[in-house]
Amino acid sequence: MGIRAIARFTSLDQETVLNVLELAGQKAARLMDQQVRNVKADFVQADELLSFVRKKQQFAGDDETCGNFYTHLAVCRDSKLIVNFQVSKRSREDSLAFMQDLKNRMAGRFMLTTDGLTTYVRKTGVVHEVFGNSIDYASEVKVFSKENPFSIWRGRLPAVVRINRKARIGNPDLRMATTCHVERMNLSVRLFNRRFTRCTLGFSKKLDNLKHAVALFVWHFDFVRKHSAHGKTPAMAANLTDHQWTVQELLTATV
User: Fold this and answer.
1) How do residues 129-145 score in pLDDT, each as one tens digit?
2) Based on C-alpha coordinates, what's the Rg of the chain?
3) Average pLDDT, the chain
4) Is a pLDDT exceeding 90 seen at residue 99?
5) Given pLDDT bands bounded at 50, 70 and 90, which one contains residue 62?
6) Burial of 108 per CB tally in 10 Å (0-12, 13-18, 19+)
7) Alpha carbons 111 and 178: distance in angstroms, whole number
């Protein structure tokens, strides 16, 4: 729901709703930072989800606090755990920070799959710089048909005509080299967070509030919401907690 809708639904002032969002978002980010450590996973996928703050990028100029922002997500294929997240631009420095954070949260060797973003896949890219030869890394690039671009507005998406998978580091299993699971996570973000719904007025007006909303969503997805794939919360499936958390636990936690 949007902020105004929440205010009407709860009979609270909009500033009160935003204050609760700030409090919960900050606590969620700190809890995620503390709890999601030493993650053991065989397959991790990473991708970026586009949104914007206050105005579209073509109208943002040199203002770094508005325009396009990307929500970086790294997802464990089996437990569905969101291992780490980052709301930022998509510069090399931002991608480097995201990969360094991912490395700090993982335990042991794993296989990483990303799309064909050059910041990742080049031999001078951030994945090679951060991980060296300590992981198995592959990329997957989907090639779409060149249909009429206006067909998307009639409900027709271009068909995938080819999938290119390539080993980048180590010895990745190319049969498992896919970004489908993290792309499905992108759908969940857009479905459950009003700020990511396209072509509406629900977009973020302030960068900090976007970060708070993403942190709250990720914490709720990992620790509160049971996933249909295994009937547990992703944090339980990843052996990071022994029970399903509640929102009350978040708000009363000492962090």
Assistant:
1) 999 999 999 999 999 88
2) 19
3) 93
4) yes
5) confident
6) exposed
7) 11
Dig out the tokens for 148 from the structure: 């009429």
Which of 78, 79, 31 has the alpha carbon at shortest distance from 225? 79
In CATH, the number for domain 38-205 is 3.30.420
Q: Which of 187, 47, 12 is nearest to 120 (CA)?
A: 47
Token duo for residue 173: 């299993």
Residues 6 or more apart whose Cβ sits within 8 Å of residue 31: 219, 223, 250, 253, 255
Q: What is the DSSP letter of 230?
A: T
**How far is Cα 26 from Cα 30, in angstroms, rounded to an integer?**
6
**115-123: Cβ within 8 A, 24+ apart:** 115/47, 115/139, 115/140, 115/141, 115/179, 116/140, 116/141, 116/164, 117/48, 117/90, 119/90, 119/92, 119/95, 120/46, 120/95, 121/166, 121/168
Report the alpha-carbon distance of residue 153 to residue 150 in Å, rounded. Answer: 6
